[in-house]
Amino acid sequence: MKKYLLMGLWCMLASAAFAQGKEIMNNASGYGYEYYYKGVIENKSYQDITGWMGAVRVSGGRSLYFKNVDFLRNNIGVSIIGGGVGLADVNFDNNSSGGGLQILTSGYDSTLLGLERVRFTNNRGTSGAGVYSVLTDSRRVGLFNTVDFDYNTATQNGGGMFLEHGYQTMKNVRFTGNSANLGGGIYAENDFTLIGSNVHFTGNTATQGGGIYAAKNLTLHAENGDIVFTGNTGHGVYMGGANSVLRLEGTPTGSVIFNDTIGGAGKIVAAGSGVVRFNVQWGSAPLYLSSGAVSLDHTKDWSSTQLVCHGGGLHLADSQAVRLNLGSLDLQRPLALVPEVDMLGGKMDSLRFQSVSGYEGIRLEGFRLLSANAEAPTTLPFMEGAGKERVSVGADAYDDVFRYQATYNSSTGEITFTPQKLLLSQGLTTVKAFAPQVLLQPLTAYVAAQALFQESDLLGARRMAQVFAFDSPKSALYLQPFAQDNKQTFTNQAQVKNTRQGAVAGGMSADWEWFDDWVSSGGWYVSYQQDSAKFEPFTVRQSQYVAGGDLFLYSYRFFVQLMARAGIQKQAGPADDSRLVGGGSALMGWNIDLAASEWFLQPYGRYGYSYVAAGKDLQSGSARLPGSDFSLAQAEGGMSLWKLSDGPWRWHVGGAYLKQMPVKSQFTAGSAALPDFELDPFVQATAGVDWAGEKVALGADMQARFGKVRGWGGSLYVMF
Q: Which of 686, 666, 687, 690 is nearest to 676 (CA)?
């Protein structure tokens, strides 16, 4: 016990010694405080310390955290020599000759652990008046979160920061009013990557590089917020190397935005997966489009620009139809565009190039309709000057409800938008063609209703197979996994690719006799199935949980099967929803003995009904897509040939003719009533083999479908 008490006392003394540190006040040849051990310094102010190493020196390879601390009017605020520093709620203000924070060696595990809510204001130094760092290992630099560099001045380079390391992550950081000879905001000595989220360079001044001076290559990556250059003197960014590359990467959540010019030599590359925005001419260097998109302010003259396309495109989504007057375009890869179209206003986004070279073209991948004319064709100018022959249209135009065919005239550079019409039935009825998104409600309802027929497709044939395999049905449990892959084309030309898989489990009772030699058995089942329905541009995934029962009756080879079912359908995709589903079916057939009770011909007919409750309302732009309940009927007539034997094996082949018909359909898009999504009749072929033992029956089926429904299906069967 005495041993542990002594150890505790030693720790307390050591902690007290750390808190005091090593103090040398106002020593012009050294520093104010030196710290060798790790710990936290809180609620302290270091003021008017003139030591040439700074108010605080951190060394010894240990970490020190400053929280709620001020460094005021010192020669240098903090010097790191072989140690680590983290800062939170810290102010560096008016530190005079060496600036706010210095990392003076890259060795001895020197580390900048991270900065949070830190301000560098009115600090002065030769280079790096706010932060001076010679670290070359980017792993030793933590996140800058909510940091301000305001009005810091360097007589040489880096008013806000001087950096030798090549990587920095910043979030909510401001460089405002800083000045230097090179790099008013940041001076980067070597290749430098800035991962920025809401980083602003505003009103900084330098001979070259008011915002950033990059001596070599520079990458600006905007993520979860923009990187913005505004009102900087000496260019927003200046590239100092003769062959340096400025890489600009936008993302879906952040843009690199230039309200200032770009100076220096080298190459500018627009890349990433988002938008790079230029509100002024970037400079004389060519701009290479690699990926993503570039946005150009249409109020500016871009006739001196040089664009080299290696992928990517121009971003034209600003909610107005504008005209861009551009310079040269070198098409090494296709240039992707999605222009905005104002039919009622008589204009669309248009381009004029002084010259176009290269081997590829300008590809219109779609259109954004600001207004539409659904009554008559509309012709609008798109391409002027050079390159008219390079334009191709890869998609039609769609408003909130209807579809418009887009046709390009390579001689005039104009595009004509024609409201499309479709023939919907044999009665020669025509309606306007609808945009894909408004078909989401009826098509998902149709897929849900159709999926309910899966159980009867599987169970009906199996019930009859049992009659032939045994002298009389036996009580049993069964399991039947299945999979299908279909393509369907509806009368409105909508196409659906559907993949379905699942399993059915159930049981049946032993038979019992009724009147006049009628025999019956009852059964129950539960099923689970997944559907992936793809109809451009959507993919909807549905899951169905269904429980049902059936009654099977037969007499003298005449049989009847009645089924009822109910369940829940859950949908994931553009319209996440849950709906009630239900239905029933009736099947009748005959078993015709062909030869010695070994061959049977089995004609049959079936009628089924499925119901899907209304889903939630959706929105397509300004058009409301209300949910509606939906009913679907299916009629089927078919014939099967069965081969039975005294042994355990049996097989069958067959074919069927099927027709599916909407019974109730009230879907609308805005004020337009959507047509019924009727499917033309189709043919289904089936082949299967079974093995029946004394206690277990096994089987496998394959299905093929032809006509408006094309695809295949398969199932396995196990009965205990």
A: 666
Instruction: Mark 104-121 as b/e (b = at least 16 C-beta within 10 Å).
Output: bbeeeebbbebbbbbbbb
Sequence-distant (≥ 6) Cβ neighbours of residue 397 within 8 angstroms: 341, 366, 367, 369, 372, 403, 404, 406, 417
pLDDT confidence of 247, banded at 50, 70, 90?
very high
Residue among 67, 63, 95 nearest 80 (CA): 63
Higher pLDDT, 11 or 200: 200
Measure the CA–CA gap between 195 and 429, rounded to whole angstroms.
58
> What pLDDT, on a 0 to 100 scale, did the predictor assign at position 596?
67
Distance CA 404, CA 367 (A): 10
Whether this model's pTM surpasses 0.90: no
Place of tokens 């290696």: 310
How many angstroms from the chain centroid is the CA of residue 14? 54
Contact 218, 212 (CB under 8 A): yes
What gap in Å lies between CA 39 and CA 84, rounded to an integer? 11
The segment with the largest mean pLDDT, out of 217-231, 316-330, 364-378, is 217-231
**CB neighbours of 457 closer than 8 A, spacing ≥ 6?**
none
Cβ of 136: how many Cβ atoms within 10 Å?
A: 13
Q: Taking all residues of the chain, what is their mean pLDDT, rounded to a whole number?
A: 84
Instruction: Collect all residues with Cβ–Cβ distance below 8 Å to 72 and sequence separation of at least 6.
Output: 45, 46, 47, 48, 91, 93, 94, 95
Beta strands (DSSP E) in 251-386 are 256-258, 262-264, 267-272, 275-278, 287-289, 293-296, 302-309, 313-314, 323-331, 335-337, 340-342, 347-348, 350-358, 362-364, 368-371, 378-381, 383-385
- Taking a C-beta distance cutoff of 8 angstroms, is the pair 31, 58 a contact? no
Tokens found for residue 168 = 């920095």
Task: State the pLDDT confidence band at 693, using cuts at 50, 70 and 90.
Answer: confident
pLDDT tens for 524-576 read 888 888 888 887 777 888 888 888 888 877 776 788 888 888 888 888 877 67
Percent above pLDDT 90 for the chain: 42
Q: Please report, as a single letter, which amino acid is at residue 308.
A: V
Which of the two residues, 28 and 343, has the higher pLDDT score?
A: 343
Q: Which of 206-215, 539-548, 593-602 has the lowest mean pLDDT?
A: 593-602
Identify the bridge partners of residue 583 per DSSP, sorted by sequence position. 565, 610
User: Torsions phi, psi of 575, nearest 5?
Assistant: -130, 80
| Residue 360, phi then psi, degrees to nearest 5 | -105, -170
Helix (H) or strand (E) holding 7: helix 2-20
pLDDT tens per residue, range 399-414: 888 889 999 999 999 9
The length of the chain in residues reads: 720
Instruction: Give whole-number Cα distances, 180 to 151, 216, 667, in Å.
Output: 10, 18, 66
Q: Phi, psi at residue 598, to the nearest 5°?
A: -110, -35
Q: Range with the lowest mean pLDDT among 2-16, 260-274, 653-667? A: 2-16
The DSSP letter of residue 138 is G
The secondary structure of residue 435, as a DSSP letter, is P
Both structure tokens of 708: 């408006």
Does 494 score more than 50 pLDDT?
A: yes
Q: Residue 479: pLDDT band by 50, 70, 90 thresholds?
A: confident
Domain spanning 436-719 has what CATH number? 2.40.128.130
Check: CB of residue 119 under 8 Å from CB of residue 150.
yes
SS (H, E, C) 289-315: ECCCEEEECCCCCEEEEEEEECCCEEC
